Amino acid sequence: MTAIARGLSGWEATTALARLSLRRMLRGKTLWVTLAIGLLPCLIAVFAQRNQSALEAWASTLKLALPLIAIIPPILVATSLSDEIDEKTSAYLWSRALPRWSVVTGKLLALAPVAATLSALGLLLSWAIFGGPAAVPAAVVGRTLLGVFAGGIAASVVSAMFATVAPRFAVPLAIGWLLLDSMVGALSMNLHVIAVSFGPRALASGTQVVTGVISLAVLTAIALTIAVRRIDRIE
After folding, report:
1. Left (φ > 0), alpha (ψ -120 to 50) or beta: where does 88 sit?
2. CA 188 to CA 198: how far, in whole Å?
3. E strand or H helix at 70
4. How many of the other CB atoms lie within 10 Å of CB of 225?
5. Sequence-ordered list of residues with C-beta below 8 angstroms from that of 166, at least 6 positions apart, any chain
6. DSSP conformation class of 168
7. Which residue of 132, 185, 209, 210 has the fewest CB atoms within a 10 Å radius of its CB?
8. Per-residue model confidence as pLDDT tens digits over 35-58
9. In this model, does residue 5 exceed pLDDT 60?
10. CA atoms of 145 and 165, how far apart (whole Å)
């Protein structure tokens, strides 16, 4: 943190805080809790393939994996950022010569890829359990994993938004919002395009892919803008 005390540019502060966040994550229990949650689809995969074809079992596994986007990112991202704010660690950071937005971007740079990877990990291992490309086409799996990973990034940014808006209740609010989002995203009506979960579903199904990507990009940008603006107002 001595480097921060001397004053850093926005990018330098972001990367410094990202490294610090990664070290804290690796030393804590949150990573292992979210890893266990991320592996839950493997259990479904083991039992589903006994009574279903590989493609049917893959679809069943995906139904469990998609809601995990609503759970893993809030636990990793919202917990870390809200603790930084609520425990007044931020008071030290605010007194340093660094832009406040770098606290948000630093957390996201470190934790969002981890949250997204853990959200997709169970699906990847389930595919191996099913028998790999011989059971489920690699193209189907590839676009599904890409969708889940992108959804995990977007959900991480939404989680950061809730951490700056309501630090003490960030995790339950983010999980509740994203679970509601997952239900809206499954609706067969135009409303589903405003849901974070719509993008992963669109990519997984191979339909409305462009719309899904645009939806994810817009929702992520909105959530990031709110988080960055809100962090500037926290005392």
Report:
1. left
2. 10
3. none
4. 12
5. 173
6. G
7. 210
8. 999 999 988 888 766 677 778 888
9. no
10. 30
